[in-house]
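Hello,

Our lab assistant flagged a job as stuck in the queue for most of the afternoon. It eventually completed. Since we weren't sure the result was trustworthy after the delay, we are filing this so someone can double-check. Below is the sequence as submitted and the structure that was eventually returned. Let us know if re-running is recommended.
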Amino acid sequence: MSETLNIVGAGPAGAAAAYAAQKFGISAVVYEANPRPAVKPCGRGVPTISDMPFEIPRERIIARIRGAVLYVDGIKSVEVRGSVNGYIVDKEGMIRDIIESSGGELVTSAPYNPSNGTVRVGGEVRDLKSGLLAGGVAFYSGEKIQGVQAIVRAPRLDSMDYLYIDFDTKLVGYYWIFPAEEGVEMGVGGFADPASLRGLLDRFIEARRDLLGNGHVLSVAGAPIAVGGLSLGSIRGLHKVGEAAGFVLPLTGEGIRPSAISGYEAARAYLMGQDVSETLRSLKVSRTIRVHSSILSALRRLSPEDRRRFMLEIPAAVHEEVALGTMDMGRIVRALAAKPLLAAKLMKYISLR
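-- returned structure --
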């Protein structure tokens, strides 16, 4: 076995893979194309930490998540408090800390070339014949949506400790407001072009002045989001993990936790000589992604009116289990007991996956 694990991509998956390698006494070299890790804009939310493969460093926790509010076309559908236990994190700091504490080497400004399997480090070109590819959405071959996010300074929400998500049935997408270090992160993602989404985001910010008060926009950035489900496999001997392999929950866009789980488990399987793709396919989070994909496909086939009716009819407990990916089947079944027709629809999406 090689004494070094090569990892392309310093995101949550790459950091978790380095963390796993250290448990085997193997050092990791993590190559990042950008000058620093975690440049992709995202909500930085980890809404549940029960299955995170590493402990989030305390100093990298920006806010504690204690609840979630879900709207459908501006109509409040679900509000949960107390049962949600997660964090908003400093993603870049967390990634750096995990790689460093694992004894791994982080090499930035080192782009990977999939056409010949090399990475450029300064004036040196290195061949990567094996390892893990955690290079993010650029290496994802499934369906993607666009997301646009603004950092908004909003003193009225400085103590915000919950996630705000509003599903848009016409867009087949969602708006969000998450706590952030600088204020709050407000974004929109869905099946529309970036220019249209930017317009929707501007209107969303103005529409939520009841929450924001006189808050003002500090910055705006956008990026694609993988929503097409798992896309496992390898490129030139590097096994895809993280968002490159589709480890994002399609209904919510959550990617930090699924990606970290995939990176850790892929590295563990790789270093033990096991089938990496089969290991990733069998994970609980992979099943959750398949359920999300099935529900999203069904929603896209419905009219906006039927989407709204379907989303509003789902009990709060089911929304919570599916959105968080915890998928407690006992709780789901109990919540659906009084709605047999809805139960039949949802169980088809869940059970056949």
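-- support follow-up --
The delay was a queue issue, not a problem with the job. The result is valid. The two ends are 35 Å apart (CA to CA). The mean pLDDT is 92.
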